[in-house]
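Service request form, structural biology core

Requester: graduate student, group of Dr. S.
Request type: structure prediction, single chain
Budget code: on file
Notes: please return the result as structure tokens.

Sequence provided:
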Amino acid sequence: MTHTNLPSRLAGALALLAVAAMPAFAQTTASRITPGDATASAGEDVFRSTLEAISTLHMSAPSDSALWERAIDGLIEGLDDPYAEVFTPAEVAAFEEQNTGNYAGIGIQITELNDMVTVTAVFNATPADDMGMQEGDVIVEIDGVDARDFTTDSVSKVVRGTPGTQVTVKVERAGYDQPIPFELTRAEVHVPTVRSGAFDDGLAYVVMDRFARGAVQEMDSVLREYPAMNGLIIDLRGNPGGYLDEALMLSDLFLSPGQKLASTRSRTPGRTGEPTEESWDDRVPPRIPDVPMVVLVDEFSASASEILAGALQDHDRALVVGQRSFGKGLVQTVMPLPHGRQLRLTTGEWLTPLGRSLHRPRASDGRPLPEDVDTFPRIQSELGRDLVAVGGIFPDVPVADDTLTLAERDLLQAAVDAEVPLPLRIAEFGFAEAQALNGAGQAPTLREQPFQAFLDQLVSDGLEQSLLEADGVEDYLRWRASLSVADRMADLGARAEFLQSRDPVLREAVQLLRGAASQSALYAAAARVVEAQSTGDPGAH
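Core staff response, request fulfilled:
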């Protein structure tokens, strides 16, 4: 819900008193107002009179529902809490899908390629998978309606629906003269939250894009899939969080019984004063106790990501590489409201096992408040490693992300100006090459002849040849094209190999792990890197 701007006096009254006048909260609010609380009683009287006057006299004739919407907005805005929010029913559904990875549909991922809605992934054990839909199928008809001009959003809205209901999808497939019909029964679909791959030398690479339901089981399956791994990288960059109990259980996979996972300090409901504290301890033996680990974080790693990274960092179980995390160390409680809405409130804060606060103070618009990191308190781990005690997760080895060169920025801007859909062309190239390589039984690679044809197409689309010949531009396009091929072939190990050339954070993690046979050796190597960074010595390894 967006916050509506109101005149300051009215906004203040609404923000302070809206709850008192809402029937759903009336009893709760009344129980907190003692008979002698004349201020609260007078405030409620003023609010009700103001609401009635506006409703009956203002020339705009606002409806009561509109006034209540503004009252709720004012109440939330008055908290000065960037994370507090009231969700509409549609936002509740979107929130659930994002955090669970669950939705009702047929189990496909679609992308608009060559002006047609194309199936680019079929999820395992879903209606589409059971009936034999394949990557590359072009959707041309849905329930008897021609879908050739549909957008991906249009197709998504039609094929999704109530579990158990039927939908008929016709697709065009290479090698078939006529569209193939599929009679599909919609079902609950779960989109995996954990993707994994491996480097040639036995390093396992795991990417988590959120902490959805089932993340622990998915991670446990990955650990069993690579029993002889020489090292593990967990990439939490860009991970906004999700279910915090999943983060705690994930920590439990790597730590030892009795070790603290995290704790909270929160307000006791209905009371002020001393907060309530609660903590969680590890209960199961570690899955890979002797495998050195690295966790990657950046400024978009938040909430549950920070819980996991903080627990592993505090107990000297994983080296953290990258950039300072977001700093969302607050407990968010989501409560149901009438008419299908939900209220999200900040009710406490999370602490790492060593008691470090993950919270980074921010203004109501979400921007970080000014701070002096040099004055932040610090704390030592059991191995004597120095850790910043507040404001998010600070990496043990700070590494900045790669940035575009001037020539690369010129290319991207020229593509926009010439209306050349560069990302779409790269996706189309990757999809076509993935099909060809899969058909030939080959691993992800960048074949020269198709790539040169791809460059020629960009020129035909309207890009100047001179832009492609600028220093480093072709290498940049090779890199992006290689990633697209690996993505379409669902080979995360190959993607990680390609990614390293332009991903200094991942490259640093791989180099450190390849030179360390144990976690203690990994920390020693990291200390040398940090020392080299401080002295400007390029020989970090």
